[in-house]
Write a structure and sequence with these properties.
Blueprint: H1 2-17, E1 31-36, E2 41-46, E3 49-55, E4 77-85, E5 93-96, H2 101-109, H3 115-126, E6 142-144, E7 157-158, H4 161-170, E8 176-180
Helix pairs in contact: 2-3
């Protein structure tokens, strides 16, 4: 009996020490995600209430906004989850609606995309669908698992697998995501 009590105490202490509880987050009302790149943190909200904080890894060039395909930067701005992938090569993943309208405007202005590509991006965003993922702006930006101990992705937001499972189960397609510098 004492061994069970000690084991229970050790599990609770270990979970608290690394910033995690053993329980899953409660059901969320109007969930939203905010990522603060400089802090390497993802904040999960239920309405205005902060529910959980997670450590994240970012793209290999983590400072600055994503501009083009291959720059290995994590984009900044307002997005939404357009897909949930339970067969991801990176454990589980949530597709983000990058490029958003601001990235599309800048890409059109700078000659990275043409008017037809811009119109296609804006149309998809207006319909809350996946914007085109194969332009010179880049694409395939996800929140996914496979580790958060360092910056290693090509622009995605990476979490530990247990954290990714919590978030994957807590949010749905359409959940807003804001990524800040």
């Amino acid at each position: 009996m004492i061994a069970i009590a000690l084991l229970s105490l050790l599990v609770s202490f270990s979970a608290a020490r690394v910033g995690h509880t053993v329980e899953s987050p409660p059901p969320l009302n109007q969930p939203k995600i905010i990522v603060k790149k400089a802090e390497r943190k993802l904040y999960l909200y239920s309405g205005a209430k902060l529910v959980r904080t997670y450590r994240v890894g970012l793209g290999l060039s983590p400072v600055g906004d994503k501009v083009r395909e291959g720059d290995r930067r994590t984009p900044e701005g307002d997005f939404y989850i357009f897909t949930k992938n339970d067969k991801s090569a990176f454990y589980l993943s949530l597709g983000l609606s990058y490029p958003n309208s601001a990235h599309a405007r800048r890409g059109l202005r700078d000659g990275l995309i043409n008017q037809a590509q811009y119109d296609s991006i804006i149309s998809a965003l207006n319909q809350k669908k996946a914007p085109p993922q194969n332009t010179r702006l880049g694409g395939d930006i996800y929140i996914h698992g496979n580790g958060s101990s360092r910056d290693w992705t090509w622009g995605c937001v990476a979490l530990e697998d247990r954290d990714m499972r919590e978030i994957f189960d807590a949010v749905s397609v359409g959940t807003p995501v804001t990524i800040r510098p």
